[in-house]
Amino acid sequence: MESTDSTTVSQQPNLPPGFRFHPTDEELVVHYLKKKASSAPLPVAIIAEVDLYKFDPWELPAKASFGEQEWYFFSPRDRKYPNGARPNRAATSGYWKATGTDKPVLNSGGTQKVGVKKALVFYGGKPPKGIKTDWIMHEYRLPDKTNNKPPGCDLGYKKNSLRVIIFYQF
């Protein structure tokens, strides 16, 4: 059976002409990630929920709800070892490698840390001999102190396990 573009269009949010989804780091953390982690309603359902590590980067644009040059996802963070803190960043045919240090995401006044941003690059093959590609990921997470849920509140996610990902290719 032949697939049509109408299926793809119906899955995209109904947005006005000229709309561009290009939030700041603070907006991503405060209005999307924090709300998603606390099960609060989102301003618009524009960020798809996908386990990014089950796919290669070139497969991910088709899984996004919206985007042409960059794509946004909510993704769980898998652990490399069951009782460890080290993340598992292996994908189908390669792995994501962190570059640089974590960057704080500050509120608009610059007085409060609302999140953390990490840059990652996709390497094809197995470490340490992987081949660097031009696929880039920016991972946003809540700071550790804000991941402690209040008594009686079940977020539905393990502590520090949900991420907002911006994903693009140079």
UniProtKB/TrEMBL annotation:
Keywords: DNA-binding, Nucleus, Transcription, Transcription regulation. Pfam families: NAM. This is ONAC010 protein. PROSITE patterns: NAC. Residues 15-158 form the NAC domain. GO terms for biological process: regulation of DNA-templated transcription; seed development. Residues 1-13 have a biased composition (Polar residues). InterPro entries: NAC-dom (IPR003441), NAC_dom_sf (IPR036093). It is found in: Nucleus. GO terms for molecular function: sequence-specific DNA binding.
